[in-house]
Amino acid sequence: MKLHDYQVRAVNFIQHVKPTGTMVAMDLGLGKTAVALSALSLKNTPALVVAPVQVCWMVWPQEIKKWTPNLSWTVLHGPDKAKKVKLKRDIYICPYSSLAWLYRQLAEKKCKLPPLSLVLDESSYIKNASTQRFKMLKKLNILFHNRLKLCLSASPAPNGLENLWSQYYMLDSGKRLGKYFNRYRDKYFMYTGPPVYKTILLKGGQQKIFNKVKDITFRLDNKDYIQLPPIKYNKISLRLPKNLKAKYDELEKNFFIELNETDVEVFNAAALSMKLRQFLQGAVYTDGENFEKVHTIKLAALKQLLETNAGQPILAAINFKFEYKMIRKRFGNPPIIYGRTPSDEKRRLIDRWNRGSIPLLLCHPLSVSHGLNLQSGGRTVVWQSLPWSLDQWHQLNGRLHRQGQKHAVIVNSLVFENTVDEVVEKVLGKKDLTQRTLLNALREYSRRKLV
């Protein structure tokens, strides 16, 4: 298959970056995987691809067959991964969750890998420098010395520009943003520390970060290269009845309420936020898996959307297990994709969805947020519960609003007025503004550099 002109530009950018690391910050649907495979084939060296587990199984094997069928590959996941890692392959595909295992295999000399190029797909998975997955990659870094290194992401700074440090560290070992995260944070941000833990970008910090990383960042925005149908964001405002709003306010103020003779108590602000969100979704967990129902207002809103959607399929994002139980009881057991859905079942559901034969598909946003093509089956998203994560927000919406979609995409958010729902909505907006400003600047730089 032939690359699009903009993908050729991306490959050329990668080839000219010195030393070897490039952040490929391309919007959803622009073909980052094809760009990475083309760059790897030009280097003609074996590579380690690290990706979310479902992307390892459902995206990379298919893309290799499509773009570089001459390259051999294996997925280092499952009960036989210890055998697979000993095979001689052009591409080793490893989930982020298996990095610690891979490091142990190499440290204990149970296997030996040659020097490798590195591709970090959905590199925002290592946005937190304190995580085990980032620490394992740092330890494995010797494998990638003087080799091609790529970070692929549509949203490299999903929760703020402090998320950039660890990703760029893997590309240049700290040359641009420093060798230590704390020093990076102190240089460009004001960090309050406990008990508030706020990180605020200092004046001029964004431009300084941009100037540091622009020479190894290739940025493409899909609106410049793909004629996609419009996407409309539709906030559906809801109100709690007076008696329920009183209960909600009581919980928010006192960290305690009584529901149906059951005491509900929380002991810190983080737990309170979670309990308030449960309340808004229609129930509150009281003990383990047990929960007390509070209302069905969001269920009624979903029912109305189903009835007014003219038979068009709906992809609905939920957050809590009790939501699924309540929706299943109300709507006749609709299918769901979540963390424990087996890969074969997930593929079957995706195929059914893309054939338009599932009127309501439920999902947890983390389980369908990366690498899946759902644009053939529907055009309507319903957020029963908004996520705190900007990455989850963009990624799930991007499953429908991507290349191949033929209709305008409608993203509906169910938001209770004067509640934590509106707080989450505002937080998402602020995160998007910060990331979008930086990415727009990088896009303009990428254009100029290759003119």
Task: Record the SSE blueprint.
Blueprint: H1 5-16, E1 21-26, H2 32-43, E2 47-51, H3 53-58, H4 60-67, E3 73-75, H5 81-84, E4 91-95, H6 99-107, E5 117-121, H7 132-140, E6 149-152, H8 164-172, H9 181-188, E7 189-191, E8 199-201, H10 205-213, E9 217-220, H11 222-225, E10 231-238, H12 242-254, E11 256-259, E12 262-265, H13 269-281, E13 283-287, E14 290-293, H14 297-308, E15 314-317, H15 321-331, E16 336-337, H16 343-354, E17 360-363, E18 380-383, H17 390-400, E19 409-416, H18 420-449
Q: Would you mind describing this structure in some detail?
A:
- With 451 residues, the protein is of the alpha/beta class.
- It folds into two domains: 5-226 and 435-449, Tandem AAA-ATPase domain (Rossmann fold, 3-Layer(aba) Sandwich), CATH 3.40.50.10810; 231-429, Rossmann fold.
- Helix content is 43%, strand content 19%.
- It is built from 18 helices and 19 strands.
- The protein has helices spanning 5-16, 32-43, 53-58, 60-67, 81-84, 99-107, 132-140, 164-172, 181-188, 205-213, 222-225, 242-254, 269-281, 297-308, 321-331, 343-354, 390-400, 420-449, and strands spanning 21-26, 47-51, 73-75, 91-95, 117-121, 149-152, 189-191, 199-201, 217-220, 231-238, 256-259, 262-265, 283-287, 290-293, 314-317, 336-337, 360-363, 380-383, 409-416.
- The strands form five sheets. The protein has a seven-stranded parallel sheet, sandwiched between helices. A six-stranded parallel sheet has the order 10-19-18-15-17-16, sandwiched between helices.
- Helix 2 (32-43) packs across helix 4 (60-67).
- The longest helix is centred in the last third of the chain and has 30 residues, at 420-449.
- The chain is globular and about 65 Å long.
- The chain starts with a helix and ends with a helix.
- The model has no long low-confidence stretch (mean pLDDT 87).
